[in-house]
Design goal:
There is one protein chain. By secondary structure, the chain is an alpha/beta fold. It folds into three domains: 245 residues, Glucose-6-phosphate isomerase like protein, domain 1 (Rossmann fold, 3-Layer(aba) Sandwich); 169 residues, 3-Layer(aba) Sandwich (Rossmann fold), CATH 3.40.50.10490; 42 residues. 46% of the residues lie in helices and 11% in strands. The strands form two sheets. It has a six-stranded mixed beta sheet, sandwiched between helices. The mean pLDDT is 96.
Length: 490
């Protein structure tokens, strides 16, 4: 392709609000790109983008809009945006007050899924913008006792506050950890409710649980959990980087929202990104994609994107309930470069599976060593080149076949504003991919079945009775109960 089109590296790029997307090393011809853009029109992507922004019921299976964009829109744009701004002002004021209290040394966020992955990832990503007002920000998501045990290690109850982040305020893992944290405070002889805050779509549930009304911050049902980072779910991030930086983060998301809403065709970076991921999954039928950020601070981004893309588009039925006839979401995975080069890049270069790679880099260094940053960027560019061109060798063990697709997404800098633009781009790409696949990106019924069965299994464990109707689970349950009894006896 490069031999046939020498200007390909300059032509197959897209720029928007400080992001540069080079997709010239994808298996994509100009004709295929034109056909993909036309396909996006055929399935109504432009009208669906407009419908989402205007608050129409784009989540047809749950009868809801998907208005996460209202969380960062100007208040005059809609009643939802005006409401979101009022709640944002409440949570900004609360975070600043906590940051100014000398007795508060630590904030522990208890949540799971979108109530954990987003704020935890962003707090790490914007590490250099922390000013130390609150020394310690920790995140607890796993119901494994080790997670909360580790988070509480070294903390003093009187100097700690907890944020219980849960859309429904009924998620079993989150509520069990919250109850343990509450008991930790009570055992210290403190009034636990003075140290607890909540971010939720069910404020009544939170208040019933014992959260003070003035400590309860709300977002609406029209915000999906994996799209909630710009809502009050961002409270721990605000505590870390401060209200001003968080507002800049929201402004960056709004920059991307406006770009996506007003830009068409190959100039729309989220559309092009979505078309490439769609083509790799549905046309080329590559089953996975590796996301490799060449930035230590973006280490948790692949995990965040796992939920955003796989929970949104990991579906096997169309919006009308009929079966799909082509692959949908790829498996999303990855680790930071250059670490990944010494782990899984062997397979990327010489394995039997072709895995598209999304490299993410930052032009402006964040660390103190420009030489180190230059080495980092050199490795990223070299890996993309090597995957594409390969290196023929008569020794089969040293032969690199090449022709492995990748993209490079460069940020001018990892600032709150530009980072907000990056995350909003991925949000829009996820939604557009869903429309291209024909699935509903805004529901997630697939997470429910295992949780329902877990409740049944737990009942059997509490009763020490393995004779439930869980026939396939019965032998394992019986073994666990026997071992548990022996452990208790010893």
């Amino acid at each position: 392709m490069f031999a046939a089109s020498p200007d390909r590296g300059n032509d197959l790029v897209c720029d928007a609000v400080g992001l540069h997307f080079d997709y010239s090393r994808q298996r994509l011809t100009s004709q295929l790109l034109d056909e993909l853009v036309q396909f996006s029109h055929n399935v109504g992507v432009p009208s669906k983008i407009a419908a989402m922004f205007s608050g129409e019921l784009v989540n047809n299976t749950e009868g809801r809009p998907a208005l996460h964009t209202a969380l960062r829109a100007t208040p005059s744009s809609s009643s939802e945006a005006a409401w979101a701004l009022k709640e944002l002002q409440r949570v900004l004021t609360c975070a600043q007050r906590l940051r100014e209290l000398p007795e508060i040394h630590a904030v522990v966020n208890i949540g799971i899924g979108g109530s954990d992955l987003g704020p935890a990832m962003a707090t790490k990503a914007l590490r250099v913008f922390r000013d130390g007002a609150i020394r310690t920000i920790r995140f607890v998501s796993n119901v494994d006792a080790a997670d909360l045990d580790e988070a509480l290690d070294g903390l003093q109850p009187k100097h700690t506050v907890f944020i219980v982040s849960s859309k429904t305020f009924t998620t079993s893992e989150t509520m069990h950890n919250a109850a343990r944290a509450r008991q930790w405070m009570t055992d210290a002889g403190l009034s636990w409710s003075d140290h607890f805050y909540a971010s939720t779509a069910r404020s009544t549930e939170a208040i019933t649980w014992g959260i003070k009304d003035e400590h309860c911050f709300e977002f609406k049902e029209w915000v999906g959990g994996r799209f909630s980072i710009s809502s009050v779910i961002g409270l721990p991030l605000i505590c870390a980087i401060g209200p001003d930086a968080f507002v800049e983060f929201l402004e960056g998301m709004r920059d991307m929202d406006q770009h996506v809403a007003s830009t068409t065709g190959e100039d729309n970076i989220a559309l092009v990104h979505a078309l490439i991921w769609f083509a790799n999954a549905a046309v080329h039928q590559y089953s996975t994609v590796a996301v490799v950020p060449y930035s230590h601070d973006l280490a948790r981004l692949p995990a965040y994107l796992q939920q955003l893309l796989m929970e949104s588009n990991g579906k096997s039925v169309l919006t009308d309930g009929s079966g799909v006839n082509s692959p949908t979401s790829p498996v999303v995975w990855g680790e930071p470069g250059t670490n990944g080069q010494h782990a899984f890049f062997q397979m990327l270069h010489q394995g039997t599976q072709v895995v598209p790679v999304e490299f993410i880099g930052v032009t402006k260094r964040l660390g103190t060593d420009q030489d180190a940053h230059d080495i980092l960027v050199a490795n990223m560019l070299a890996q993309s080149e090597a995957l594409a061109t390969g290196s023929p060798n008569s020794n089969p063990h040293q032969n690199f076949p090449g022709n492995r697709p990748s993209s490079v997404l460069m940020m001018d800098e990892l600032s709150p504003r530009m980072f907000g633009s990056l995350l909003a781009m991925y949000e829009h790409s996820a939604a557009i991919q869903g429309w291209l696949f024909g699935v509903n990106s805004f529901d997630q019924f697939g997470v429910e079945l295992g949780k329902t069965i877990a409740s049944q299994v737990l009942t059997s464990i509490k009763k020490t009775d393995a004779t439930s109707g869980l026939t396939m689970t019965h032998p394992l349950l019986e073994r666990y109960l026997a071992k548990r009894k022996n452990n208790s006896a010893s």
